[in-house]
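Input sequence (120 aa), recorded before submission:
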Amino acid sequence: MSTISTTPVEDAMRIKINQALNPSTLEVYNDSSMHSHHKAMQGATSKETHFRLLITSEAFKSKMQPARHRMVYALLKEELERAGGIHALQLRTRTPEEEARQVAREREEQGETIAAVETR
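Predicted structure, token format:
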């Protein structure tokens, strides 16, 4: 017995991105419910219109952000062009090295916060 997905657009995005970019990190956030009251969304039947993606992939090496975003847009062309498909797509694309630097920076900042609290 097969079940019908309640998130077919998200499922398609995950499959396409995983196959094409082999990401070490892929986070997909469906923010559609926060935008359902917007005038442009009146009468929309899809619950999958607004997404935020965080993608970490070696495929982004030596590419600037606009080129990375074009890669993702090309992958999701069908979902973006389909009537009732993706209305808004926010992308955060990075390489594994950029991700490592970001994590280190966040840990350092957190350490500074903890140290400041401990000295009070």
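Checked by second reader. The radius of gyration is 18 Å.
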